[in-house]
Amino acid sequence: MFRASYNRAVLRIRITTVTPLRIGAGDVTLDPSGADLTCVRTRHGQHGSTVYIPGSSLKGVLRSAAEANVRGRNFGAVVGSCDDPLDRDGLCNRGASNKARQPTHEIHKALCLTCRLFGSLAIKGRASVRDLFPWSEEAGTEPRVAPGGSNHLSANQLEVRHGVSINRMTGSVENGPFDLELVPAGVAFFGDIALENYQACQLGLLVAAFDQVNDGIAQLGSSKSRGLGVASIAVERIVHEQAGTHAKPYPVEVGALVTSDDAKRYGLAVAAALPIADGVARGLATRFDVQDTAPWLDAGRRALGAQR
Protein backbone atom coordinates (compact mmCIF):
# COMPACT_ATOMS: atom_id res chain seq x y z
CA MET A 1 0.00 0.00 0.00
CA PHE A 2 3.02 2.26 0.40
CA ARG A 3 4.93 1.33 -2.75
CA ALA A 4 3.26 4.22 -4.56
CA SER A 5 2.22 7.63 -3.26
CA TYR A 6 -1.45 8.27 -3.99
CA ASN A 7 -2.44 10.92 -1.47
CA ARG A 8 -1.21 12.46 1.75
CA ALA A 9 -2.28 15.14 4.20
CA VAL A 10 -0.83 17.15 7.03
CA LEU A 11 -3.15 18.24 9.83
CA ARG A 12 -1.87 21.30 11.68
CA ILE A 13 -3.18 21.02 15.24
CA ARG A 14 -3.28 23.14 18.37
CA ILE A 15 -3.51 21.48 21.79
CA THR A 16 -4.60 23.76 24.64
CA THR A 17 -4.21 22.59 28.23
CA VAL A 18 -7.47 22.82 30.18
CA THR A 19 -5.90 21.55 33.41
CA PRO A 20 -2.16 21.35 34.18
CA LEU A 21 -0.22 18.77 32.19
CA ARG A 22 2.57 16.45 33.28
CA ILE A 23 4.55 14.33 30.85
CA GLY A 24 7.36 12.91 32.92
CA ALA A 25 11.02 13.03 31.93
CA GLY A 26 11.64 9.51 33.23
CA ASP A 27 14.83 10.43 35.10
CA VAL A 28 15.82 12.17 38.32
CA THR A 29 17.31 15.65 38.17
CA LEU A 30 20.77 16.24 39.66
CA ASP A 31 19.76 19.76 40.68
CA PRO A 32 19.17 19.68 44.46
CA SER A 33 16.79 22.64 44.15
CA GLY A 34 14.80 21.04 41.34
CA ALA A 35 11.56 19.07 41.56
CA ASP A 36 11.65 15.33 42.20
CA LEU A 37 9.47 14.51 39.19
CA THR A 38 10.31 16.77 36.25
CA CYS A 39 8.52 17.43 32.96
CA VAL A 40 10.06 16.23 29.72
CA ARG A 41 12.12 18.86 27.91
CA THR A 42 14.00 19.15 24.65
CA ARG A 43 16.49 21.63 23.23
CA HIS A 44 15.54 23.56 20.12
CA GLY A 45 18.40 24.81 17.98
CA GLN A 46 17.02 28.37 17.85
CA HIS A 47 14.79 28.73 20.88
CA GLY A 48 16.72 26.84 23.54
CA SER A 49 15.41 24.46 26.20
CA THR A 50 11.63 24.07 26.33
CA VAL A 51 8.87 21.78 27.49
CA TYR A 52 7.05 20.00 24.68
CA ILE A 53 4.60 17.18 23.97
CA PRO A 54 6.40 14.22 22.37
CA GLY A 55 4.66 12.89 19.29
CA SER A 56 4.89 9.37 20.71
CA SER A 57 2.97 10.43 23.84
CA LEU A 58 0.17 12.01 21.82
CA LYS A 59 0.03 9.07 19.42
CA GLY A 60 -0.39 6.67 22.34
CA VAL A 61 -3.32 8.68 23.70
CA LEU A 62 -4.98 8.94 20.29
CA ARG A 63 -4.51 5.24 19.58
CA SER A 64 -6.00 4.25 22.94
CA ALA A 65 -8.96 6.58 22.36
CA ALA A 66 -9.48 5.20 18.85
CA GLU A 67 -9.36 1.61 20.12
CA ALA A 68 -11.92 2.41 22.82
CA ASN A 69 -14.23 3.88 20.17
CA VAL A 70 -14.29 0.85 17.88
CA ARG A 71 -13.40 -2.13 20.06
CA GLY A 72 -16.03 -4.86 19.78
CA ARG A 73 -17.43 -3.44 16.54
CA ASN A 74 -17.14 -4.73 13.00
CA PHE A 75 -16.87 -2.46 9.98
CA GLY A 76 -17.92 -4.74 7.18
CA ALA A 77 -15.28 -7.47 7.07
CA VAL A 78 -12.84 -5.39 9.15
CA VAL A 79 -12.59 -5.68 12.95
CA GLY A 80 -12.60 -2.34 14.76
CA SER A 81 -9.66 -3.10 17.05
CA CYS A 82 -7.54 -6.15 17.79
CA ASP A 83 -7.05 -7.33 21.37
CA ASP A 84 -3.36 -6.44 21.62
CA PRO A 85 -1.34 -4.69 18.87
CA LEU A 86 1.89 -5.95 20.52
CA ASP A 87 0.88 -9.62 20.53
CA ARG A 88 3.16 -11.27 17.96
CA ASP A 89 0.70 -14.13 17.59
CA GLY A 90 -2.27 -11.79 17.17
CA LEU A 91 -4.24 -11.36 13.98
CA CYS A 92 -2.63 -8.03 13.07
CA ASN A 93 0.97 -9.27 13.51
CA ARG A 94 1.00 -12.59 11.68
CA GLY A 95 3.10 -11.11 8.91
CA ALA A 96 5.72 -9.67 11.30
CA SER A 97 8.09 -12.64 11.04
CA ASN A 98 10.55 -12.55 8.15
CA LYS A 99 10.49 -16.35 8.05
CA ALA A 100 6.82 -16.41 7.19
CA ARG A 101 6.57 -13.18 5.25
CA GLN A 102 3.18 -12.75 3.62
CA PRO A 103 2.39 -10.58 0.62
CA THR A 104 1.75 -6.98 1.67
CA HIS A 105 -1.85 -6.98 0.49
CA GLU A 106 -2.64 -10.04 2.62
CA ILE A 107 -1.06 -8.44 5.69
CA HIS A 108 -3.02 -5.23 5.14
CA LYS A 109 -6.30 -7.02 4.49
CA ALA A 110 -6.03 -8.88 7.83
CA LEU A 111 -5.40 -5.70 9.88
CA CYS A 112 -8.02 -4.23 12.18
CA LEU A 113 -9.25 -0.68 11.51
CA THR A 114 -7.07 0.82 14.25
CA CYS A 115 -3.87 -0.93 13.13
CA ARG A 116 -4.49 0.23 9.57
CA LEU A 117 -4.31 3.81 10.85
CA PHE A 118 -1.65 3.58 13.59
CA GLY A 119 0.35 0.54 12.48
CA SER A 120 1.21 -2.89 13.88
CA LEU A 121 4.33 -5.01 14.28
CA ALA A 122 3.78 -6.26 10.73
CA ILE A 123 3.26 -2.99 8.84
CA LYS A 124 3.60 0.73 9.44
CA GLY A 125 0.54 2.88 9.96
CA ARG A 126 -0.83 5.74 7.91
CA ALA A 127 -0.61 8.29 10.75
CA SER A 128 2.64 9.92 11.89
CA VAL A 129 2.40 12.22 14.92
CA ARG A 130 5.10 14.86 15.26
CA ASP A 131 6.37 16.63 18.37
CA LEU A 132 4.37 19.66 19.55
CA PHE A 133 6.01 22.86 20.78
CA PRO A 134 4.58 25.86 22.67
CA TRP A 135 4.85 28.13 19.64
CA SER A 136 3.71 28.21 16.04
CA GLU A 137 6.02 29.20 13.21
CA GLU A 138 3.24 29.57 10.63
CA ALA A 139 3.41 32.75 8.54
CA GLY A 140 1.33 35.50 10.14
CA THR A 141 1.35 33.88 13.58
CA GLU A 142 0.06 36.19 16.29
CA PRO A 143 2.86 37.50 18.57
CA ARG A 144 1.47 35.67 21.62
CA VAL A 145 2.09 32.24 20.09
CA ALA A 146 5.24 33.05 18.12
CA PRO A 147 8.63 31.75 19.37
CA GLY A 148 9.51 33.81 22.44
CA GLY A 149 5.92 35.03 22.79
CA SER A 150 3.85 35.02 25.96
CA ASN A 151 2.52 31.50 25.35
CA HIS A 152 6.07 30.14 24.97
CA LEU A 153 7.12 31.86 28.19
CA SER A 154 4.01 30.76 30.11
CA ALA A 155 4.47 27.12 29.09
CA ASN A 156 7.96 27.13 30.58
CA GLN A 157 6.94 28.84 33.84
CA LEU A 158 6.18 25.50 35.42
CA GLU A 159 3.97 24.96 38.42
CA VAL A 160 5.27 22.79 41.28
CA ARG A 161 2.86 20.70 43.33
CA HIS A 162 3.58 18.65 46.40
CA GLY A 163 2.30 15.11 46.75
CA VAL A 164 2.44 12.08 49.00
CA SER A 165 1.63 8.38 48.62
CA ILE A 166 -0.83 7.04 51.22
CA ASN A 167 -0.75 3.50 52.61
CA ARG A 168 -4.22 2.08 51.96
CA MET A 169 -4.14 -0.09 55.10
CA THR A 170 -2.86 2.35 57.72
CA GLY A 171 -3.89 5.65 56.13
CA SER A 172 -0.44 7.08 56.84
CA VAL A 173 2.16 8.48 54.44
CA GLU A 174 3.93 5.68 52.59
CA ASN A 175 6.20 7.77 50.35
CA GLY A 176 6.88 11.46 50.13
CA PRO A 177 6.42 14.25 50.25
CA PHE A 178 7.61 14.71 46.66
CA ASP A 179 7.40 17.54 44.14
CA LEU A 180 5.84 17.38 40.67
CA GLU A 181 6.55 19.81 37.84
CA LEU A 182 3.45 20.72 35.80
CA VAL A 183 2.86 22.68 32.61
CA PRO A 184 0.19 25.23 33.59
CA ALA A 185 -3.37 25.27 32.28
CA GLY A 186 -4.25 27.65 29.45
CA VAL A 187 -1.15 27.26 27.25
CA ALA A 188 -1.07 25.97 23.67
CA PHE A 189 1.16 23.50 21.84
CA PHE A 190 1.41 23.30 18.04
CA GLY A 191 2.35 20.40 15.79
CA ASP A 192 1.41 18.20 12.84
CA ILE A 193 -0.14 14.83 12.17
CA ALA A 194 0.73 13.42 8.74
CA LEU A 195 -1.45 10.90 6.90
CA GLU A 196 -0.21 8.83 3.97
CA ASN A 197 -2.38 6.96 1.45
CA TYR A 198 -5.37 7.46 3.72
CA GLN A 199 -9.09 6.85 3.45
CA ALA A 200 -11.84 9.18 4.64
CA CYS A 201 -12.95 6.68 7.29
CA GLN A 202 -9.40 6.66 8.71
CA LEU A 203 -9.52 10.44 8.96
CA GLY A 204 -12.83 9.89 10.75
CA LEU A 205 -11.26 7.47 13.23
CA LEU A 206 -8.57 10.06 14.01
CA VAL A 207 -11.23 12.76 14.46
CA ALA A 208 -13.20 10.44 16.78
CA ALA A 209 -10.06 10.21 18.95
CA PHE A 210 -9.83 14.03 18.94
CA ASP A 211 -13.45 14.15 20.12
CA GLN A 212 -12.61 11.83 23.03
CA VAL A 213 -9.89 14.24 24.13
CA ASN A 214 -12.11 17.30 23.71
CA ASP A 215 -14.87 15.65 25.75
CA GLY A 216 -12.45 14.99 28.60
CA ILE A 217 -12.73 11.20 28.23
CA ALA A 218 -9.13 10.77 27.08
CA GLN A 219 -6.42 12.72 28.90
CA LEU A 220 -2.78 13.45 28.16
CA GLY A 221 0.29 12.67 30.21
CA SER A 222 0.48 11.08 33.64
CA SER A 223 -1.23 11.59 37.02
CA LYS A 224 -4.64 11.69 35.36
CA SER A 225 -6.36 10.58 38.56
CA ARG A 226 -4.97 13.75 40.21
CA GLY A 227 -7.00 15.89 37.79
CA LEU A 228 -4.20 16.51 35.28
CA GLY A 229 -4.05 16.13 31.51
CA VAL A 230 -7.42 17.50 30.35
CA ALA A 231 -6.89 19.28 27.03
CA SER A 232 -8.58 20.33 23.80
CA ILE A 233 -7.45 19.65 20.23
CA ALA A 234 -8.26 21.95 17.31
CA VAL A 235 -7.38 21.24 13.68
CA GLU A 236 -6.40 24.64 12.31
CA ARG A 237 -5.39 23.68 8.78
CA ILE A 238 -5.29 20.67 6.46
CA VAL A 239 -2.86 20.45 3.55
CA HIS A 240 -3.88 17.59 1.24
CA GLU A 241 -1.85 16.44 -1.75
CA GLN A 242 -2.51 13.75 -4.31
CA ALA A 243 -0.69 12.45 -7.35
CA GLY A 244 -1.40 14.76 -10.26
CA THR A 245 -1.17 11.89 -12.74
CA HIS A 246 -4.62 10.72 -11.65
CA ALA A 247 -6.16 13.86 -13.12
CA LYS A 248 -8.62 14.43 -10.26
CA PRO A 249 -9.41 18.18 -10.04
CA TYR A 250 -10.76 17.76 -6.50
CA PRO A 251 -9.44 16.02 -3.35
CA VAL A 252 -10.17 12.31 -3.02
CA GLU A 253 -9.19 9.50 -0.68
CA VAL A 254 -6.90 6.64 -1.69
CA GLY A 255 -9.83 4.32 -2.42
CA ALA A 256 -10.78 6.54 -5.37
CA LEU A 257 -7.21 6.63 -6.71
CA VAL A 258 -6.27 2.95 -6.81
CA THR A 259 -7.73 0.45 -9.25
CA SER A 260 -10.76 -1.57 -8.23
CA ASP A 261 -8.60 -4.71 -8.26
CA ASP A 262 -6.11 -3.17 -5.80
CA ALA A 263 -8.92 -1.90 -3.58
CA LYS A 264 -10.28 -5.44 -3.38
CA ARG A 265 -6.85 -7.05 -2.84
CA TYR A 266 -6.04 -4.73 0.05
CA GLY A 267 -9.52 -4.91 1.53
CA LEU A 268 -10.09 -1.14 1.39
CA ALA A 269 -13.34 0.30 2.68
CA VAL A 270 -15.85 1.70 0.23
CA ALA A 271 -14.51 5.08 -0.95
CA ALA A 272 -16.18 8.13 0.56
CA ALA A 273 -16.20 11.72 -0.69
CA LEU A 274 -14.02 14.50 0.68
CA PRO A 275 -15.21 18.13 0.51
CA ILE A 276 -14.60 20.01 -2.73
CA ALA A 277 -11.61 22.38 -2.64
CA ASP A 278 -9.53 24.36 -5.11
CA GLY A 279 -6.19 22.75 -5.93
CA VAL A 280 -2.87 24.11 -7.15
CA ALA A 281 -0.38 22.13 -9.22
CA ARG A 282 2.80 21.47 -7.27
CA GLY A 283 5.34 19.45 -9.22
CA LEU A 284 3.87 16.01 -9.87
CA ALA A 285 1.09 16.53 -7.32
CA THR A 286 -1.95 18.70 -6.79
CA ARG A 287 -2.12 20.52 -3.46
CA PHE A 288 -5.28 21.57 -1.62
CA ASP A 289 -4.75 24.03 1.25
CA VAL A 290 -7.82 23.90 3.50
CA GLN A 291 -8.34 26.63 6.11
CA ASP A 292 -11.96 25.77 6.99
CA THR A 293 -11.37 22.30 8.39
CA ALA A 294 -14.82 21.62 9.90
CA PRO A 295 -16.35 20.16 6.68
CA TRP A 296 -13.37 17.78 6.34
CA LEU A 297 -13.67 16.58 9.92
CA ASP A 298 -17.42 16.05 9.45
CA ALA A 299 -16.77 14.14 6.21
CA GLY A 300 -14.43 11.85 8.12
CA ARG A 301 -17.01 11.24 10.82
CA ARG A 302 -19.67 10.40 8.22
CA ALA A 303 -17.33 8.05 6.35
CA LEU A 304 -16.49 6.20 9.57
CA GLY A 305 -20.17 5.90 10.51
CA ALA A 306 -21.08 4.63 7.04
CA GLN A 307 -18.74 1.63 7.45
CA ARG A 308 -20.76 0.10 10.31
Can you walk me through this structure?
With 308 residues, the chain is an alpha+beta fold. Helix content is 22%, strand content 25%. The strands form four sheets. It has a six-stranded antiparallel sheet with strand order 6-9-1-10-12-11. The protein has a two-stranded antiparallel sheet with strand order 2-3. A hairpin with a 2-residue loop joins strand 11 and strand 12. Helix 1 crosses helix 5 and helix 5 packs across helix 7. The protein starts with 6 loop residues before the first strand and ends with a helix.
Describe the global form. Answer: globular
Largest sheet: 6 strands, antiparallel
In terms of per-residue confidence, which ranges show pLDDT below 50 for 5 or more consecutive residues? none
Overall pLDDT: 87
In short:
The protein is an alpha+beta fold and 308 residues long.
Structural topology:
Elements lengths: L6 E11 L23 E4 L3 E4 L3 H16 L3 E2 L2 E2 L24 H7 L2 H6 L8 E3 L20 H6 L3 E8 L6 E10 L5 E9 L3 H15 L16 E13 L16 H6 L13 E4 L2 E6 L3 H13 L2
Antiparallel strand pairs: 1-9, 1-10, 2-3, 4-5, 6-9, 7-8, 10-12, 11-12
Quick tags:
globular, 6-stranded antiparallel beta sheet, 25% strand, 7 helices, 308 residues, alpha+beta
